[in-house]
Design goal:
There is one protein chain. The protein is mainly beta and about 290 residues long. It has one domain: Thrombin, subunit H. About 10% of the residues lie in helices and about 30% in strands. A six-stranded antiparallel β-barrel has the order 3-6-7-10-9-8. Strands 11-12-13-16-15-14 form a six-stranded antiparallel barrel. Strands 4-5 form a two-stranded antiparallel ribbon. A hairpin with a 7-residue loop joins strand 11 and strand 12.
Length: about 290
Amino acid sequence: MAVLLSGCVHIDLDTGARGGPKMFHSSASELKGVSAEALLVEADQTVADMVFRTNLIREVAERSRPAVVSVYAQTKTPYRIHLLPIPFLGPGFGVQLPGIGLGSGFFIHPSGYLLTNNHVIERAEKVKVKTQDDVDHEVIIVARDPEYDIALLKVVGEEKKFPVLPMGNSDEVDSGNMVIAVGNPLGLGHTVTSGIISHTGRHLSRITEKEGRQINFIQTDAAINPGSSGGPLITLTGAWVGMNTATATSGEGIGFAVPSSQVREFLDMIRNGSWEPKSGEDRSQTVK
């Protein structure tokens, strides 16, 4: 879950039908009919048999971190929150920021398309991301799907190419596969944790009943801390197979990620124009 250093004021710009991505910016129309290659980079291999080496996780993390960003979502109403005690910061501390929500995200295409969780940015008036080189970038919300908790963002006003994480096939992973998670826990910046996939196709009844659609979560024991929401779950080949979205508050070592197969479903709906408005509707709205 994202560490929300803000009180959130809901701004509902959704006019889409239940079950589809909700469009926020006219740039979404530019994606209709494009090939998958125009929106994401595919991994050559999702999983592989390999000899485990001491430095293997470090090598995967070093390759992956440049594509992972910290997400800062500005909302209207601030409030004070007491963060967890952190040894080098003392016995706990409070902060009050002008409506800033914290999360993580990662680039899926060199042109600046990136993913994060919907709950990280859904109430934002303005969103920025910070890359590993400590540079801030303005982004727009292209599309979001509250029910799958996915949001597609894009860096604007820049021509540079960004490092990306290749998308793997979550249908190819299984319990016992080693994975790493990269994120921005508690706003501390890039942090790497590792573990295994504990279960695939996990159904959380409360979420399913509330949202009306079934998410086939990947369960992992890799630590997913507050603020890591939206970060990638990565196999040892360097392919991302899930987007970290939640951790169980009642038990340690239980985290959940939206599988890449369902993220692909979301992206395909955008490319296929499945979100297009009915007569008289306008779903392309700008968040400035």
